[in-house]
Amino acid sequence: MNVRRPHISAVALAAVTALGIGTLSACSSDGAAAGNTDKFDVVASFYPMAYLAEQIGGEHVHVTSLTQPGQEPHDLEISAKQTAQLEESDAALYLKGLQPTVDEAIGQSPVKTKIDAATLTSLEEHGTEAGGHEDEHGEDEHSEDGHAEDEHGHEHTHEGGEDPHIWLDPVKYAEVAEGVGKAFEKADPDHAADYRKNTAALVGTLTDLDKKFETGLADRKTDVFITTHAAFGYLAERYGLTEEAISGLDPESEPSGARVKELQQMAKADGVTTVFYETLVSDRTAKTLAGDAGLETDVLDPLEGITDASRGDDYVQVMEANLKALQTALGAK
């Protein structure tokens, strides 16, 4: 999963102008036309946006997701039918920079309310390493190789780009939820009170999830985990971990021999036990690295879609499964 381009276009922090939804609930229908219902019709770009729309909109929304379960979001090509659905909708909710064809389609669509989730929180640049720790002098422990550090002391390798995976940090996801809620209130004022109530409930759920991660990862043997690509940079930074990605932001790029060797040495030095892979892209690279280094493999789900292979039925359940996987891999008690 994840950003297919090494550099994602920067998203200007702009006023909220739109909203869209996609989800797996009774108030959504991926196959039905997005418009012409007696509900607030929302088109969502992919699962994390659909989940927000469903939870916040509740019974008042009809949600259509542009990305089907099991489909890699970055591969999405908008069909003529989906373009028509957009034109019939009341709102579109998307994350600019993740799916170029969606960005283009929504940009050209006459849909009245357009909500770009990337404007509702701050984005950062992440490379093959994200997170890391500062030493007692406030200097990054991994900065000897000349990588750039940001204002928080985090290093970022140059092959990175602006990272859109904000939904994997419950705190950032809650910030987005609050912005979406306000956009729904403005676009459908007749149901503003319910949207406000639902948003508060969702933010509460995400706050509880954040506390579970903070507590569950507090006492651990190592801070470092290895993933096939850099989807979990925001999560790593939130909980003081270091994500080392095999392939950076692109889930299908091939790592160099030097990078593989570096990761093998790092795994031994930092007590890494597990190489994580995900369900929507090949696990070949992860299993090859793990086999060569004598490590285990496990799933860390980037939650770009819910399928039968997912370890849970919705965002919260899969995130809790991710927490358990991290606890095992990091030796958390």
**In order across it, which strands form the biggest sheet?**
6-11-10-12-13
**Mean of residue pLDDT?**
81
Number of strands: 13
Strand content: 5-15%
Q: Termini separation (Å)?
A: 29 Å
Describe the protein's topology.
Blueprint: E1 40-44, H1 47-57, E2 61-65, H2 80-88, E3 91-94, H3 100-108, E4 113-116, E5 124-126, E6 129-131, E7 148-149, E8 155-156, E9 161-163, H4 170-187, H5 192-216, E10 224-227, H6 233-238, E11 242-245, H7 257-270, E12 274-277, H8 284-293, E13 296-299, H9 315-330
Parallel strand pairs: 1-2, 1-3, 3-4, 10-11, 10-12, 12-13
Antiparallel strand pairs: 5-9, 6-11, 7-8
Structure write-up:
Helix content is 35%, strand content 14%. The chain has 333 residues and is α/β, with parallel strands linked by helices. Helix 1 packs across helix 4 and helix 1 packs across helix 5. The chain is globular. The N terminus is likely disordered.
Notable traits:
single chain; 333 residues; alpha/beta; five-stranded mixed β-sheet; four-stranded parallel β-sheet; globular
Briefly say what this structure is:
The chain has helices spanning 47-57, 80-88, 100-108, 170-187, 192-216, 233-238, 257-270, 284-293, 315-330; strands at 40-44, 61-65, 91-94, 113-116, 124-126, 129-131, 148-149, 155-156, 161-163, 224-227, 242-245, 274-277, 296-299.
